[in-house]
Amino acid sequence: MTEEVKKKSIFKKLLIAILFLLVLVYLAGIYVFSKYTYPNTYLNDNKVPFKQIDTLFSNIALDKIKIYAKDNEEYILDPTELNFVADYKENTEIKQNSFIWPIEIFSKHEYINPVEKAVNTENLNSWIKDSDLTKNMKEPINAEIIKENNNYIIKEEELGNTLDIEKLYSTIESSYLNSINEITLKDEYVKPTVFKKDLEERTEFLNKLLERNLSIKIHDDSLIKLEDMEIFINENEAKLDYEKVKNYVIELKNKYDNLNKERKFTTYAGSEVTVPGGNYGIQINLEKSTDAIFNALSEGDSEVVDLVYTHKSPNNGEIGNTYVEISIADQRMIFYKDGNVIVDTPVVTGQPNGVYDTPKGVWNVWIKERNRFLRGSNLDGSKYESWVQYWLQIDYTGVGIHDAYWQNGNFGGQRYKTRAGSHGCINTPLGEVSKLYDNIEKGTPVIIY
Q1: Tell me, what's the pLDDT at 234?
Q2: Given a cut of 90, is residue 326 above it in pLDDT?
Q3: Among candidate residues 296, 312, 328, the one where a domain is terminated
Q4: How many CB atoms sit inside 10 A of residue 3's CB?
Q5: Domain total for the chain?
């Protein structure tokens, strides 16, 4: 056999072997790709090469979820162990023509079959509860203002590592449902509600408040210097406290208010009596004075703040040495002016019958009139009308000091206990009431006891 013939024989055998091998590979490919997916097969955008076709939609691999905590520790959650649910939504069929696999292996094959997932609530809650992730948690601490060395400073917040269990559950659930396999915890931690930056402006204000030079002007124009500003600060919240300012004004009212308050009074006879309150005196307006002091402290642009008064009688509401004194028991009226007796006269006061009694108290002359009628009702319901030349009203019910021609010059004694007693006014001889009228000013205190 020639050399050339030998070569042809070998080539022929080699060709047959290659063809046989190709046939075997082809047949093997037909078998393989009748059972398994092509290399470029994608399911829900995830590459799934060489996956068993008949189990592709029955087995869903659940990846473990890695959770990274604040301390950089890694915690592993296995959805399979916690019986989380994952099922394909549809019965999708993988259609592959295995006979043309040599061509199809180079093509992209895409399948969409949504997966329905659900966590096992009970198991997830138990996992969270038992996990080291939620052990030894330290609560966050709010920043706070404290006083140190006569100065207010901020003690910074502490973040702690306490997890909001509801947020943690929600994050894990969302990650699982969205196939996110790594979680870095951040917003799941409980945060302080007050941070250093929240307190900087208040701290600055408090320190300025300590340096304030503020005085309160009271009724007699004297000044009360506020020595201790801290009495106005709420220590729990480290801020100016309106209620504390109000309490301070209440203290001022208790000390200085004398309107409608009982008073000790020394009579012309030298005895001390207690006289009920009346319309003479001073009364600090609680709300407006509180507002004035609070605003002055807040704004810091005042050195002196005036108290606001609801009522302010002359002489700062003190009786002083100019006043009218009326003794019901003695039926006597004395008018002192600058300590000198101007009028000293018997009078007739109201009948002590529970209706016409002359009101005891510290009153003041707030109306002065000449020549007018006095009108009112008698006990039997009839009306009366009396002309007087001098009228000095002392209270708001219509009681006053006036002349009384109907007394026919008879004053003093026990007349007031009879029908001659007045309807509450102080009946005075004409000449004496004239002298009183000419010498007295509005606002002069009238003490009746």
Answers
A1: 86
A2: yes
A3: 312
A4: 6
A5: 2
